[in-house]
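Reviewer comment 2.1 asked that we show a complete input and output for one of the modelled complexes. We chose the 6-O-phosphono-beta-D-tagatofuranose case, as it is the one discussed in the main text.
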Amino acid sequence: MSELGKFEIPHHLSITPGNGGLPKLLIETDWSTAEIYLHGAHVTGFQKKGESPLLFMSSKSEFAHGAPIRGGVPLIFPWFGPLEGFPSHGFARLREWTIHETGLLSDGSVRVSLTLPEAENFEVEFIITIGETLSMELAVKNTGGQECSFADCLHTYFQVGDIHTVSITGLEDTGYTDSLTAKTELETGSSIHIDREVDRIYQDTTATVEIHDPSLARTIRIEKSGSRSTVVWNPWIDKSKRMPDFGDEEYLQMLCVESGNIAKNKVFLAPSASSALKVTISSAAL
Ligand code: TA6
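Response of the prediction step:
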């Protein structure tokens, strides 16, 4: 841990052993606090002062080498979902990332840049900027000698007060693959409500999505660039019970709205080319 001390910023960034003894960055700004684990370059917390946490973290999450953290912002790369013989959602969230640099910006926000060691034919950097908003950018460069393709996604778990009263806007008139039926559907409603397990990959959308949460009297805004897919997921009752690292009732207080490039929207990169997936999360009183 001591070799990480050079990245600390007095009053703004400290590095300590977190859950499971894993290195954790604690960030404090005038507007907010945040937590980042080097394990998986995983943003596990973001909270604006005087407000409920914006990110959900399961009380049953593991914090161990080789296991994904359940909550916050799992970083999905270079594949999305299951892959025979390999870990679900790729290897990036299972690896120990290194700190490239940290800094206090002139506007008072804190910037952290992490890199993924030994990512085969890729250079992968994850840049997190914490201030009044939470901005995250996954930058990938193709360092192999030929064209490559991959999926990427910031699989963000948002904290909500009561899933029954939440509505989601921004995806109207957008086609999606229903992962529960494998069917292609069209979102016809002006807003989405959750009253069962929902697992949908909305395709060809660059839209900003908003989560309207009357229970916590706030709207969460999810702006993105470099992303053509948005996933909406809540496990509901039965799937919650099947997940050992997720409380049976926790589906009531969480909703995943995930921004990435998945399936037909996956990324193709020529040799030496780069991509950047960026998400900015903000909140306002409802
Ligand atoms: O993003 C939705 C999803 O693909 C769901 O199907 C569900 O499996 C979720 O991701 C969590 O996946 P994980 O591998 O983290 O348990």
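The chain has a mean pLDDT of 97. We note this here for comparison with the apo prediction described in Section 3.2.
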